[in-house]
Amino acid sequence: MMITSRDNELIKEVSKLISASKYRKKSNCFVAEGVRLCRDAASSGALIKSFLYTSEAAEKYNEELCIISKAAASSAEISRELYDRLSDTGSPQGFLCVIDMNSTPRLNEISISGKYAALENIQDPSNLGTILRTAEALGVDGVILSEGCCDIFSPKVVRGSMGAVFRLPFMQVKSMADFVRIQTSSGAVCYASAPRDAEDIENIDFSGGAIMLIGNEGNGLKEETISCCTKRVKINMKGRAESLNAAAAAAILLYRLLS
Amino acid sequence: MMITSRDNELIKEVSKLISASKYRKKSNCFVAEGVRLCRDAASSGALIKSFLYTSEAAEKYNEELCIISKAAASSAEISRELYDRLSDTGSPQGFLCVIDMNSTPRLNEISISGKYAALENIQDPSNLGTILRTAEALGVDGVILSEGCCDIFSPKVVRGSMGAVFRLPFMQVKSMADFVRIQTSSGAVCYASAPRDAEDIENIDFSGGAIMLIGNEGNGLKEETISCCTKRVKINMKGRAESLNAAAAAAILLYRLLS
């Protein structure tokens, strides 16, 4: 039976999951929207609690429909009108999954030979999504997020990450400074991306394991966090002494870390 | 006298300049919004035809108000209500300039020892803005844009570029392939960012002048354009064989070009 009513319990739930970070945390679920993201969720083994689709999308993306329906605990058709009202994208494709957060990969321990990105208070969802996508493409082993980062399970981050949230292990930490203290004391090398008195990333040997710390869009890393790191590093900019966008800076830093 | 009416000719003009690329081209003007962008316009020597501000903004940013008013051919106060209706940003700051396109820097010739970014059909305004900002920060000498790129003077690009449009010389070309043909025949080195059968950017000596070609978000560079280039290059990705976001890829490519 097709869902057409806004008063349907599942629809009310999806709507809250899309708009409210608090509700996502409470219910331990999030929403992935779009054909590709839903298929990524299915193929990555994420636990899909509900799969909603419009009849137009079911016809157009039949192969994906089969894969996702098979992986989902429950599936239901929903009217186009209701879907468009729910969706937070400009051009809704008609596929939407409710996913159990706990079924996405977590980073449980830091390996001394691994390469990691640690993000402190990245606030813009587009930036966080792009950084996760970049980290996955370049081959980072995992991502550490401070509590002050925007919600990794917000629809914008999930979309911007191109599904990296389904595959790239992450860890959330209360205090980045405490995390860095613990890591350096067990022998990990932590680089603070912080331009002042810093070494040019071109002069650093990144052949071993390391954690690259990247800070907030406007303010960079906290002084306390920087002071716990092994070394300050910077991107040498020949142009106007103007900071790069956080996602562009992260791309360069992580590229050097991994190359 | 404060402007309060939507029927005011200047307001109608600004509204069209914000929303319509065609109208920008026709009138050779564009709009820069926000305190920082307007100040950047003034300090870069761009020709500011009209400067509009709310009384709240005038009070809050008095120093900037003086600088911008001095540079502007005309200035006028506008009601907060009207400003908020005009603005296309989420949190309008109350400063807006109408700028003469022809007063921003153009790239008139390519120097054999210079470093350039050539962008073919970059379609997303956020990506184009970020790439311009990155290009300026890293010290690129100029940018070449194909006709298929989104409008460099759209409010989103101007904002995302953090004012790079006021300082970074650019050139628009009808056909990128033709441009590349001409450049290579006069001895310039053109690198096509195109993953297939390409050389890893780590193995390339970028010490001389060069033009780095970057293609469309979904489709990359056109085959014809690639075939005119000196060499195909790629970013070595250790992770999932998944392409980077266009702006992240451009950051890495331009960083290597300039470092």
In CATH, the architecture of the largest domain in chain A is 3-Layer(aba) Sandwich
Secondary-structure element series of chain A? HHEHEHHEHEEHEHEHEEEHEH
Binned strand content of chain A: 15-25%
Number of helices of chain A: 11
Multimerization status: homodimer
Model regions low in confidence, pLDDT < 50 over at least 5 residues of chain A: none
CATH superfamily of the largest domain in chain A: SPOUT methyltransferase, trefoil knot domain
Largest interface: A-B, 33 and 33 residues
Strand arrangement, major sheet of chain A: 7-6-5-10-8-11-9
The Rg value of chain A, from CA coordinates, equals 20 Å
Averaged pLDDT of chain A, please? 95
Provide the structure class of chain A.
alpha/beta
Envelope shape of chain A: elongated
Report the sheet with the most strands of chain A, covering strand number, pairing sense and barrel closure.
7 strands, parallel
From the N-terminal CA to the C-terminal CA of chain A, the straight-line distance is: 53 Å
Domain tally of chain A: 2
Description:
The structure is a homodimer of 259-residue chains. Chain A has 259 residues and is an alpha/beta fold. Chain A has 2 domains: 95 residues, 2-Layer Sandwich (60s Ribosomal Protein L30, Chain: A); 144 residues, Alpha/beta knot (3-Layer(aba) Sandwich). In chain A, 38% of the residues lie in helices and 19% in strands. In chain A, α3 crosses α5 and α7 packs parallel to α11. Chain A is elongated, with a radius of gyration of 20 Å. At the A-B interface, α7 and α11 of A face α7 and α11 of B.
